[in-house]
Amino acid sequence: MTKQKEERRVDQTKYPENLKLFIAIWTLFVQSNAVGEAHRFSAWKGFFVIVIPAILFVEIIVAITVAITMTIL
Description:
Keywords: Membrane, Transmembrane, Transmembrane helix. The protein is mainly alpha-helical. It is built from three helices and no strands. The protein has one domain. The termini are far apart.
């Protein structure tokens, strides 16, 4: 296979960034509704059940990274 055909094939498999963003938002929407329905409360509460732990997880990782960086310096 020539290099041009290989490059063209790779380019065809890439998704546009807008499509990736749309799929990510749609996934969050469906997950929020599913969690809300499973626990018998609103989709908004389902959204916060997903988002709040994610935010806390990121904050903990950032805090640990900062603490390690400060001890090294």
